[in-house]
Amino acid sequence: MVLLALALTAAVWHWSGTDSSLATVLQRLQSYLPAGQTLEAKDVSGSVRAGGHIGSLRWTHGELSVQADQIAIGWSLEPLLKRQLRLGHLTVDTLTIDDKRAASDSQSLAPPTDLSLPITVDVPFVFHTVRLTGTTGFEAKEVSGHYIFDSYSHILNKGQGTLSYGTYQFDGSVQAQAPMALKLQVDGAIQTTLPSSEQPLTVQAHASLAGELANPDAKLMVQASLQPELAAVRGNKGKATGAMQAQVLAQVQPWQPQPLVNANAQWQALNLAALWPLAPQTELTGSASVVPDGANWRGQINASNKLPAPWDQSGLPISAIKADFQHAQGQWFITALEAQSAGGRLTGQGNFNQGQWQASASVTDINPSALDSRLQAARIQGNLVAKQANAGISFSTELRGTQVPVQPLSGAPTGHRPMDLGTLSLDAQGVWVAPQLKLSALRLEALDAHVQGTLDYQTETQATRADLALSLPGLQGTLNGHLASAEGLGKLTLALTDASQTTRWLQRWPIPKAVRDALPISGTANLNANWQGGWRAQGQQLRQLDQGLRPVQAQHCSTAWGRV
Question: Which DSSP letter does residue 409 get?
Fold first, then answer.
C-alpha cells in the first residue's frame, strides 16, 4: 500500500508537470461550478506545476461575464500544498467585464459578514487593457498592482493605471472580518490645458474612502480634490487663474436605502473629458450640496458651462443649469429644474424611487443645430413626459418648431451645409423596454416630409414592424409589415407623382453618388411590392419579392428606378 501510494504520488507529480495538465484542470473545473455559471478556456498550454499560457478564459453568470485574453501566468505548486497561493507573475492583455444586470434594489443591500479565504494569496498582476461594457462603460490602460491576502486583510499595493488624460496610483485594504475597516486612496496627475491660453497644465487628483463595512449603519467618508500645479497658473496677485480644480466632501451609508448622508462640492473650469473618456469636453464652474432636513434631505446644484458645444462635436450643449431637489419618504424629488441649453430654456420636475422614476419637461426656443451641428437652426417648443416602471419607460412628446436663419456654428466642417428641417412637428407616444422601442402613435413632419403610423424597432437585432403612411415632395406611400434577419412579411406601395420634386428632395441627403446619378429626372410611376422572408445572407432569405413598377410618364423614370 505504501509503494502504491508513492507510485500514485509520483505519477500525479509527473503529470502536473506536463504541458497539457493546465488545460485538463481548467476543463474539469467547469463541472464544479455552481448552477448557472460557466467557464470556457481556449488555447491553453502549460502545466499545473509551473503555470503557462491561456489564449482566452471566459466566465459567465446570467447577464454578467468576465473574459481575459492572452493570459500569461507563472507560479509554484509547492506553496499551494501549504495553503499559500503565490504567483510569480500574472499578465493579461485584455480584461473585459460585460455587466448588463439591472440595478439592484437598494433595500436588499446587506453588509458583508466574512470576507475570509481558505488560503493566503500573493499575486502581482498586469492588465494591459481593462474594459467595462454593458450598462456603463470605460477603458483603462496598463493597470498593475500587487494583491495580498494575509489571513487578516485584503491588501492592494502599488496599484497604478491610465484613464483618459490621467495617470493614477492607488492603494487600499479591507479587513476580512468585523469591523471590516476599509481604507482606499487614489492619487493621480491629469494632463490638460488652461482654458484661457491653451497652456499645458498638470492637475493633481486625490481621493480617499475610509470607514467600516460590517454594520447596517456603517458610514464611509469620501474626500476628493483636483488641484492645479500653481507654479503654472499664478497671476500677478498669486492666485490661480482659471485652472481646473474641485473639492468634494461626502458621507455615505452604503447599506441604507438612501445612502447619501451629506455632501458638498465646488468646482472650477472642470473638463469632464479629462476625467472620464466617454464624457464630453466641458468647462464647468459651480457647486452642489446635499444636507439633512429633519428626517429628510434637501439639495441643490448650480453650474455654468463656458464651453457649450453640440453633441456631435464631443461637447455638452448646456450653458447653465440650476436644480433644487429633496428626499422624503424614500423618494427623490426634483422640485425645480431650469437649464439654459442649445440657445433656449428647459424647465422640468420629477421624482425617483427605488429604480422607478417619472419626469416632465418643457422646452422653449431650443435650437437643434446647437444640439447637433448637422441640423438646420430652428426654434423648438414643446413638452416631454416620461415614466419608468417595471414594464419599461413610457413617454409622450409634443414638439413644434420653426426654422430661423442663423450663421453656421463655429467648428462646423468646411463646406458643411446643415440639413434643412423645414417646419417641424413631432407627436409620439410609446414605450422603451430595452432593447425594444414601441411607438403606439407617431406623427412627424420635418424636412418637408410627413410620416404617420406605428413602429416597433429592436435595437440589437434591427427587427422592425411598421404600419406607416409616408408623404414627401412628389411621392406618397404606405408600408405595412415586419422584417427581421430570418423572417418577414409585408407590403410597400409608392406613388411617384412628380419625380423632379422627389429628386431635388433626395439630393439634400448625403446619399451615394451612384444612387444620386440614378435618380429619375422627371415623370410619374407607381410601385407595389410584397416581401416574405428575412434579410439574412444579404437578402437570400427573401423567399418571395414581388414588385410591380408601372411608369405613367416614362421620361427617364422607368430606367432610372431600375438602376436604383
Answer: P
At 46 the pLDDT is: 85
- The 10 Å Cβ neighbour count of residue 259 is 15
Q: Which residue carries 417641424 as its cell?
A: 424
Q: CA-CA distance, 492 to 530, in Å (whole number)?
A: 6
Cα-to-chain-centroid distance, residue 538: 30
Reported pTM: 0.67
What is the phi-psi region of residue 530: left when phi exceeds 0, alpha when psi lies from -120 to 50, beta otherwise? beta
CA distances, 517 to each of 416, 495, 514 (Å): 21, 21, 5
Q: What is the mean pLDDT of each run of 10 residues along the chain (564 residues)?
A: 76 68 80 85 84 90 91 84 85 91 62 89 94 83 94 93 90 93 93 74 90 90 87 48 84 85 90 82 91 86 92 89 87 89 90 80 89 82 86 87 60 49 80 87 87 90 91 90 87 87 78 67 81 69 52 46 42
Q: How far is CA 62 from CA 79, 99, 433, in A?
A: 34, 9, 19
**Can you read off the three cell numbers belonging to residue 353?**
424611487
* Helical ranges in 266-345 per DSSP H: 272-275
The span from the CA of 244 to the CA of 283, in Å, is: 8
3-state secondary structure of 14: helix
Coil, strand, or helix at residue 12?
Answer: helix
Q: What is the pLDDT of residue 411?
A: 47
Contacts of 22 (CB under 8 A, 6+ apart): 44, 45, 46, 47, 48, 51, 52, 54
CA distance 351 to 158: 43
Cα–Cα distances in angstroms (integers) from residue 456 to residues 360, 436, 440, 533, 542, in the given order: 24, 7, 8, 18, 21
Give percent helix, percent strand, percent coil of the chain, each to the nearest 5: 15, 55, 30
> Is 49:88 a contact under the CB 8 Å cutoff?
no
